[in-house]
Amino acid sequence: MGSKKSFLKYFKAHYWLYLMVIPGVIYLFIFNYLPMYGVVLPFYDYKIAKGFRGSEWVGFENFRYMFQSPDFFRVFKNSLVLSFMRLLMGFPAPIILALLINEVRVRWLKRTIQTIVYVPHFVSWVVIASIITNLLSADGGAFNYIITAFGGKPINFLIESVYFRWIIVAAEIWKECGWGTIIYLAAMTSIDPQLYEAAMVDGASRFRQILSITIPSIVPTMIVLLVLRMGNILQNGFEQVFLLYSPSVYEVGDVLETFAYRLGLMEGRFSFSAAVGMCQSVVGLIMITIANKVANKVEGGALW
Amino acid sequence: MRAKRKKHLTSWDIGVIIISLILTFIILYPFLNVIAVSLSKETAYYKNPLMIMPRSIELTAYGYVLQQKLIKSGFTNTIFITFVGTLFSMFVTVTLAYPLSRKDFKGRKIISKYLLFTMIFNGGLIPNFLLVKGLGLFDTIWALVLPSSLSAYNCILIKNYFQSISPSLIESATIDGASDLKIFGKIILPLSKPILATITLFYSVGRWNAFFQAIVYVKDRKLWTLQLVLREIVASVNSLEGDMVSYVSPRNIKYSVIVVSMLPILCVYPFVQKYFVSGTMVGAVKE
Fold first, then answer.
1. How far apart are CA A242 and CA B231, in angstroms?
2. Cα gap B50→B30, rounded to integer Å
3. Displacement of CA B113 from its chain's centroid (Å)
């Protein structure tokens, strides 16, 4: 057959290329594809001592239990609410910051600002959670210092349900909005400067220029990122919640990741934990497909 | 006579600059505060917890912290994991990226899909845990080095950068009889320094800061990474043993450990910063 011959010919001439993909392909197989067998875990009553052979098949029992569990619904709700809050406030933040930075016409200042705002992204959540815990502590924390200076009583922020979600959202914005500007600033630098010049000639104010030129140019980028974000709708970072939460805020702060972690690794309920994890992945897959279809219709700037 | 272009700063410019500076300061503030407090006496802290400049400098907290066994092992483990892990990550990622960047590579489509799928679908916490256990890696340092070594996202960024290198260079080299390996080593790699520096930084930072993997895959205290040690100290420093505690306040210890954990990254950061903006920008724009 013609194609087989040409493949062999190509292979002989370019065997290095095939050798080069081997490490990556094997690696992905072991560490990414093998764990995917975990998709069957929720269907067994997996006991680690017995392994797969010894564990009982329980069909949809775990899922039935999951959907009837008030704990699960509380956690599911928390994941959704937190994710939406992070989306609503966290998605625009880097865009606004990027627009602002893009308007800074003093080169060295622009560069310095960029250098500084990227820093929190490189610091670990452990460090940030420690800083936040100290800033918010009821015993000498900076925030309470200000509150008591104004005559108020110190508030132990991290154990009050009413503040918890806001703290998580604010922490994430602080950490990531600087870094998030990179992709938008990149898009902005590819805008034809003649557009701005023409607008200036037409008498448009700088603000008007932003509205009519800059923002529309970054809309495709925004859409791609939004679609990706939608795929992660049930996901919240494990570390940021785990490091800041405590039993007193489980009511609002316990999300699918932390729930699955406690159930699976602390309580050893592997199958149930896997069921929770699967729920997350499946919903994510559905969401990203839907979001992509919508994006296709709107702007044509979709992922596939 | 040099022609000078006069720059008029309008009120808009000034407004933008002021708001930008305020936001930048807000982002910077917590770091300044932490560093300042860690260097100051506790009494100075109570006078002004909001400080950004250290008062009554006192280094005993740092002395205490740097002598802790757990800190030393934490550092050793983290440095090992970061160094070996990043090397390994770069190896598997870059070798996979190059063939995928070659449009003529037969099998490109299927391997690309193979890679992309790993970005979308993940086995989940429990299966990964069982895998690590099954491979006999649980509670060894390798459990912190091997998993999560190949980020499809990073691979794609590198692949895109490789693609942006002029194909005529490759063509002329092929005509000259160079093997793919030579092309890769002598042409592609040297021209890819920005993206390689960027991705190396990404992987290194990810390793250095890793916390989740450490609590899941490792039990032995001696294998704890720096982040784990930091977490432990900050969470439990109020009940410390040892007579040093009478000299140093728990708060100073906490803050010192925080600074010590951040310092390496903050030191490396300025040097690599110039690379990664151009590196990610090319990746982003080209997509």
1. 11
2. 9
3. 27
How is residue B169 annotated by DSSP?
Answer: H
Neighboring chain A residues of B20 at a CB cutoff of 8 Å: 100-101, 104, 109, 113
Q: Is B26 exposed, middle or buried (0-12, 13-18, 19+ CB in 10 A)?
A: exposed
For residue A105, the chain B residues in CB contact (below 8 A) are 7, 9, 13
Nearest chain B residue to A120, by CA: B27
In chain B, which residue's Cα lies nearest the Cα of A26? B92
Interchain contact, A23 vs B92, CB within 8 Å = yes
Contact call for residues B251 and A140 (beta carbons, < 8 A): yes
Distance CA B139, CA B43 (A): 43
The pTM of the whole model exceeds 0.80 = yes
Tokens describing residue A168: 């998580």
Phi, psi (rounded to 5 degrees) for A151 = 95, 5
Give the ipTM: 0.84
The per-residue pLDDT string of chain B (287 residues; one tens digit each, 9 = 90 and over) reads 445 555 677 888 888 999 999 999 999 999 988 888 888 887 777 777 778 788 778 788 888 888 888 888 999 999 999 999 999 999 999 999 999 998 888 889 999 999 988 887 887 888 899 899 889 999 999 999 999 899 998 999 899 989 888 888 888 888 888 888 888 988 889 888 888 988 998 899 999 999 999 999 998 889 999 999 888 888 776 555 444 456 677 778 888 888 988 888 888 888 777 776 665 554 444 33
Contact A126 B227 (CB under 8 A): yes
B160 contact residues in A (CB cutoff 8 A): none
